[in-house]
Design goal:
The protein is about 30% helix and about 20% strand. The chain is α/β, with parallel strands linked by helices. Belongs to the aspartate-semialdehyde dehydrogenase family.
Length: about 350
């Protein structure tokens, strides 16, 4: 099949780098353009990224010699690609304006950024959880006055460690959730070389992260009504987010109460049998097993389990009764794959398969 021509805007940062590695052997998508800040524009990608290359594989050959474009040149870039992945590092208002400029120039934007997550007609999608939210794109296009252009976003990386595990359990009426996340340093765009202060350290604060962790699941579980997404009213969620000395992989300790308490066997069966739309469609990036439960008492572990399913599977373990809540358990997701670039690539695949992206 003829591949989609793909641009990455914000290609020099850590998530942008991950997008570029994921395009290297993609069966549907071909990286044809990289854009970044004006200070990187005009250099080859290899020159622009320099010593900041943070991936554990070399820069893909196709990307190495591409001349970096100015990400602000939305009009000219939109004419050369079928869609873009956005991973720019700018102020929220600037990101909102830039992504909307691409959309208005008829270039669809699949964004890793948080800037448009609360725009009412922008779908914030975990493909296995709320694919039905894509239908709001029609209303967004009417607002923007576009035929092809739109913005779709993925959720915060931390909620993708526990929301997928909770999602099938909504059948029992999720009432109350406490989620404590232990988040890898790559979530801050850092490595141990660039952030030596994190070695042998734990920082009990990540700016804005607890608000996102408590509110974003309610949009993901919301409903489309009159051309906007109305967030869910339940469950009540409280969270605490902590930065830990781990390179990749966000872990969550989850406590949950139900309206109608299921048995542990019922919960495990739901996890084992759950399949989302990406699994039905056999999307290239979708893991065969979306949710994997470990019976071993010391799993999941970041070093051992973050790459399960190509880094796209959610790992779960230690399900047991709790003295304050009905149950507690532990989850793990790869934060720059499932939680960031990989989740956005899977979202783009879903948009293609459902007819929202065209060449």
């Amino acid at each position: 099949m003829e591949k989609y021509k793909v641009g990455v805007i914000g290609g020099t940062g850590m998530v942008g780098q991950r997008f570029i590695t994921l395009m290297e052997h993609h069966p549907w998508f071909e990286l044809t353009l990289i854009a970044a800040s004006p200070r990187s524009a005009g250099k080859t990608y290899e020159e622009a990224v320099g010593s900041r290359w943070a991936m554990d594989v070399p820069i893909p050959e196709r990307a190495r010699k591409l001349v970096v474009r100015n990400a602000e040149d939305a009009a000219s870039i939109a004419e050369e690609v079928d869609f873009v992945f956005s991973a720019v590092d700018m102020k929220k208002e600037e990101i909102q304006a830039l992504e909307e400029a691409y959309a208005r120039h008829e270039c669809p934007v699949i964004s890793n950024n948080s800037a448009h997550r609360w725009t009412p007609d922008v779908p914030m999608v975990v493909p296995e959880v709320n694919p039905e939210h894509l239908q709001v794109i029609e209303a967004q296009r009417k607002r923007l006055g576009t035929k092809r252009g739109f913005i779709a976003v993925k959720s915060n990386c931390s909620i993708q460690s526990y929301v997928p595990a909770l999602h099938p359990l909504r059948a029992f009426g999720l009432k109350r959730v406490l989620a404590c996340t232990y988040q890898a340093i790559s979530g801050a765009g850092k490595t141990f070389e660039t952030w030596p202060e994190m070695v042998d350290n734990v920082i009990p604060y990540i700016g804005g992260e607890e608000e996102k962790s408590e509110q974003e699941p309610l949009k993901v579980w919301g409903r489309v009504e009159n051309g906007v997404i109305v967030k869910a009213r339940t469950p009540d969620i409280t969270s605490q987010c902590i930065r830990v000395p781990v390179s990749n992989g966000h872990t969550a300790a989850v406590f949950v109460d139900f309206e109608k308490k299921p048995s542990m066997e019922e919960i495990k069966e739901l996890w084992a049998s759950y399949r989302g739309r990406p699994q039905e469609l056999k999307l290239p990036t979708a893991p065969e097993q979306f949710l994997h439960y470990f019976e071993e008492p010391d799993r999941p572990q970041a070093r051992l389990d973050r790459d399960l399913g190509g880094g796209m599977t959610i790992s779960i373990g230690r399900l047991r009764p709790d003295t304050q809540y009905n149950y507690k358990f532990v989850c793990l997701s790869h934060n720059t794959l499932r939680g960031a670039a990989g989740g956005a690539v899977e979202l783009a695949e879903l948009l293609c398969a459902e007819g929202y992206l065209s060449r």
